[in-house]
Amino acid sequence: MRTVTYVANNDVTLLESGSTYFPALLAAIDAAQHEILYETYIYAEDATARAVTDALIRAAKRGVKVRVLADWFGTGNRTACRLKAEFCAVCVHYRTFNPWFRRGAARSHRKIAVMDRQVAFVGGINTNDDNLHDYEPHAPLPAPRWDFAVCVRGPLVTEIHREAQAQWTRAGHLPLVRRINLFREMRKQPAALGDHPMRAAFVVRDNLRNRRTIQRAYLQAIGRARKRVLMATPYFAPGRRFREALCQAARRGVDVWLMIGVGEFRMQDAVASSFYPQLLAAGVRIVEYRKTQLHAKVAVVDDNWATVGSSNCDGLSLFVNQEANVVVRDAQFAGSLARQIERGIADGVQVCMDDLRQLGWVRRCGHEMAYFLYKMTMRVVAIGYA
After folding, report:
1. Contact, 374 vs 271, CB < 8 A?
2. Which of 302, 314, 330, 375 is an active site residue?
3. Is 70 helix (H, G, I), strand (E, B) or coil?
4. Count of beta carbons in the 10 Å neighbourhood of residue 350
C-alpha cells in the first residue's frame, strides 16, 4: 500500500461547480499547444459537453495531440460510439474504458484533464450540464448540481500527467510484457521539493498498486484530527474501518460533520440511513443535503488538510472503481473549502436521534435489510469491504 507523498511549490485553485469549472477548462484547452489528456466518467450529449467537444476539436485542428478517455458505462454505449466516430474524423484520439465489462466490474470514475504538462484539472465534475440530472439528462435539477474540482499548476502536474498517460495506455490493447513494464514505471514516487506551500499530493485508487490509497489518506487525516472534520459525499456506505474512524474522532472531542446527498437513489439512501444510529450515538453530526444533487466528494480536517476528487465514501469508490483525488496541505485552501462545506451544511437538514426514534420499525428494518444486501453485493465484487 503506497503512502501519500506530498510535492511542494504548487498552485491549487478551488473551482465550484460547472459555472466556474468549465470556463477555466475551456480556456486551458484553447491555450494548449502540444498535448491534451482528457478523462471523464460521464460524457453527455448537451450544450456543456458540446462546448468541450468543440474546444477539443479546435485543439486537434491546430496540431495539438488530443487524447480522450470516457468510461463506457458512465457515458453509455450509444454516446460512446457517436463520440468515437466524431473524434476519429478530426484526428482526436478516443478510447472507452472497459466496454461491456470485458475487464471486470471496475469503472473509470476519474475526472482529469492535463494540458501541455503545465496545468491539470482534477475533481468530481463530469462532462455534462450542471442543471440536468446525471442519469436522466432531460430532467432539470431544482438548482445547479453542487460539485468541486481543482486547477493545479506546479510540480504535481507531472505526477497527474504520468498517471493520465498510463491510464490511456492501459485502456488500449496492451501486451502482457508492456503492462508489467508500465506497472514498474508507475511504482516510482515523485520527488518532494521541500516544505513550502502549497504542498499537495495526487492520490488514485486502482486494483493493482493503489487499492486503498484514497481510503488510507482519509483514515490518516481523520485519525490525526484534533479540531474538526468536515466531509461531503453524495453516497455514504464505506467499510467498517472508515465508519469507526469517524466515530472515534467524535468520541475524542473532534467536531465531526458529515453531509450526505439524498434523494437520488432510494436504495443508497436506505444504506446510508442504516449507519445513522451508530454515528449519531458517537457524536457525529449528520446533515442531509436536499437542495439539489450533491455531487461533491470533498473533506477538510482541522485547518490545513483538504481533499477534492472523484471518490465517493462508498464501497464502489473505495474498493472497486478507479478514482483520483488531490490532497492539499495548506491553511488558505482548506479554509476556502471549509467555508463552502459550511455553506452546504447551512442549506441542509440536520438529522437528530429523535428523528430516528420516530421512524417505524418497518422502515428501520428496511434500512438494515438494504445494508445487508449492499454488504453482500460488495463482498462479491470487492475485496476488503466489511
Report:
1. yes
2. 302
3. strand
4. 12
pTM for this model (two decimals):
0.92
- Residues belonging to the chain: 386
Q: How far apart are CA 345 and CA 259, in angstroms?
A: 7
Is residue 295 part of the annotated active site? The answer reads yes
Annotated catalytic residue within 71, 109, 129, 161: 109
Contacts of 227 (CB under 8 A, 6+ apart): 254, 255, 302, 303
Give residue 40's pLDDT. 98
Verify whether residue 111 is a known catalytic residue: yes
Rounded Cα–Cα distance for residues 303 and 332 (Å): 8
Which cell numbers hold the place of 363? 422502515
302 catalytically annotated: yes
CA–CA dist 199, 160 (Å, integer):
14
Q: What confidence tens digit (pLDDT) does each residue in 22-46 have?
A: 999 999 999 999 999 999 999 999 9
Cell numbers describing residue 292 = 439539489
Hunting for cell 457525529 — which residue is that?
284
Say if residues 44 and 358 touch (Cβ distance below 8 Å).
Answer: no
Distances (CA, A) of 12 to 4, 15, 123, 163: 17, 10, 12, 18
Identity at 132, one-letter amino acid code: L
